[in-house]
Design a protein that fits this description.
The chain has helices at about 1-10, 75-85; strands spanning about 15-25, 35-45, 50-60, 60-70. A four-stranded antiparallel β-sheet has the order 1-4-3-2, with helices on one face. Strand 3 and strand 4 form a beta hairpin. It is globular. Helix content is about 20%, strand content about 40%. By secondary structure, the chain is α+β, with helices and mostly antiparallel strands.
């Protein structure tokens, strides 16, 4: 959830981002199946480097925080990885194609 939220806040400005690192700090137990609030923000942006943070709360009580470093990628980066993934799609001869 944090990875998605931290990327979405910056993807509105730069559509070619990937997560370089992500750190989550749990402050309280996080319940499953309950609606929570998550606020993400851009802390810094310099060149290809983006620093973002977020806080997850339940009725105003902080449950967890996260910090991430995102990087802007060149356009060919995604095409290269899509081709790599395509070569690993299931094949009739086994679970993965060879490459």
């Amino acid at each position: 959830m944090f990875d998605d939220a931290l990327n979405v806040v910056a993807l509105r400005i730069e559509p070619r981002l990937v997560t370089k690192s992500l750190a989550v700090r749990y402050l309280r137990p996080v319940p499953v199946g309950r609606p929570m609030d998550l606020l993400a923000r851009i802390e810094r942006h310099s060149g290809r480097r983006w620093e973002v943070s977020a806080e997850m709360t339940l009725t105003g009580t902080p449950l967890a925080t996260a910090r991430a470093e995102l990087r802007t990628r060149r356009p060919h980066h995604f095409a290269r990885h899509e081709a790599w993934l395509a070569r690993r799609s299931p094949s009739p001869n086994g679970p993965h194609a060879e490459s």
